[in-house]
Amino acid sequence: MTKFIKFYFLAFTLLTSAAIADEYHYVNVFNGSKAAGLGGAYTSIADDLSAMLYNPAGLSLSTVKSTASVNIFSKEQTEFTNIFSDGSDFTRDSFVILPGFFAFRKKEGDWDFGVSFAINDLSKERTSTDSITNIESSEFQPSQRNNEFIYIDLDNSAYKLGVTTAYRYSDSLSFGSSLYFQYKEFSTVQGSGIVSSIFTPIGEFEGGFNASRRIIDLQVSVQPILGVLWKTGNLSLGGKIAYEIPLRRDYEATATILFSSLTVLPPEMTPAFRIKEETDIKQDLPYEITLGASYQFSNLSLSADVNYFSEVKSGGESLEFIDTPITRKLNEVINWSVGVEYEYSTDITIRFGVFTDNSNGDIDINIDNQRIEDIDLVGFSTSLRTVFLKNVVTFGLYYKYGKGDVRFADVRSVEQIVGLPLYPDNGNHDIVEAKKNILVLFLSLDF
Predict the structure, then answer these.
(1) Which of 31, 172, 242, 332 is most buried, judged by most C-beta within 10 A?
(2) Integer Cα distance of 35 and 377 in angstroms
């Protein structure tokens, strides 16, 4: 089989399987103006309506009746190293304008009740890239021009709707609980190919290759959250435990491969190939424990959180023919965040935060057809709170960046399907270097 056909079996599977929604990180979107400005270091503060997510016990301390937080701009970029046949890189960009968090609260004595809607993840991608390579003629082969292309259309969303109850046990101690219903939807059509022209003395000959994959993954779950908040003097301590319980999954994958080869194919190989598979196998999820502390110094406050996600040992289930795991083991992850809030005046407050968003993936070359991303991210955030037309308005941004490795050994599952050695060995167990950066601008209004 020609070199370009081998390459594009590799590129197709590599790039179409890499773009599942960010299942490798837990800190995808911050909800609420104060939590976002502090980089998530908010568990021991929890004094606005986003407490329903971060620490439901804090709802008893809030004086806000309703809130709207909008992550008005989100841009994500991931660059893969040495993807095209000429050694050039491939960059993926996602851009979206999205809502964030909406909540309402009602107080009855020592009890507080709330309803909230949050968007945990929302991204859209429309990527199309071409790379043209000209190969000069030699003693052994005529001149050739290859037009390599990659295209990706992706839509990813995750929504949470929940109810919260909080009880003010005393002036210093509160308890709370939330129950969220979650719906996640991921859909994509991705592919790659080549148009290759060979110039010979008797004329020009063209061949080509196009491979695409369509994936739809719907998941439904519930997430109970328990929280406690203790305040004494200028010191506050908070804790939260949460667990996401999968209820339903509908996963469908369709792979289509079409090509016209310039060389004779083996008799068992056909120019058209298509597989469609479905499953309802669920991915087990970790439990989450967060501990936080904060201290108030006059008009300056410091806060810090430690966020723990447990290990998930089960996983590794695959479809029957597309032998790429659709469930996986999740590593134990610890993230931390530190925030600073400075009250410049009664109308202006400035916030800063630093945080981590570490990967839950671990590359293991002993796992067949493993698709995994191992990129630890570090981020910072900042926001400005002010009063505009008698309403409290907050605007700011947060940014994450990291480098690491991505493994695309699931390309070998296509070899098993077609029965041919299609992929060149990159000498590193199908591992490539990658870097990722994400920028989000947000706006919040309390009323």
Answers:
(1) 31
(2) 18
CB 192 within 8 A of CB 153: no
- Cβ–Cβ < 8 Å for 257, 10: no
Three-state DSSP at 236 gives strand
Lookup: tokens for 222: 């519930």
Between CA 446 and CA 385 the distance in angstroms is: 11
H or E element in which residue 7 lies: helix 3-17
Q: Hey, is 60 helix, strand or coil?
A: helix
The HSE-up count of residue 165 (CA atoms within 13 Å, CB side) is: 3
What φ, ψ does residue 223 adopt, rounded to 5°?
Answer: -135, 105
CB 71 within 8 A of CB 98: yes
CA 12 to chain centre: 21
Protein fold of 6-182+220-247+282-446: Porin (2.40.160)
25 CB-near residues (< 8 Å, 6+ apart): 357, 358, 359, 360, 377
- C-alpha to C-alpha distance for 54 and 48, rounded to whole angstroms: 10
Distance CA(283)–CA(66), nearest Å, equals 35
Domain borders along the chain are 6-182+220-247+282-446
**Amino acid sitting at position 161:** L
Question: 132-183 pLDDT, tens per residue?
Answer: 888 888 777 788 888 888 888 988 888 999 999 999 999 999 999 999 999 9
Alpha carbon of residue 55 to chain centroid: 23
Both tokens of 320, joined, read 């029957």
Helix locations, 325-418, DSSP H: 411-418
**List of E strands, 233-319:** 235-243, 245-260, 272-279, 287-297, 300-309
Collect all residues with Cβ–Cβ distance below 8 Å to 274 and sequence separation of at least 6: 254, 255, 256, 257
Q: Which amino acid is at 102?
A: F
Cβ atoms of residues 55 and 239 within 8 Å: yes
Average pLDDT for consecutive 10-residue bins of the chain (447 residues)?
42 40 82 90 93 93 71 79 78 75 88 90 83 81 83 89 96 96 92 80 77 88 97 95 96 82 64 84 94 95 98 81 80 97 93 97 82 92 88 90 86 60 67 90 78
d(CA 153, CA 155): 7
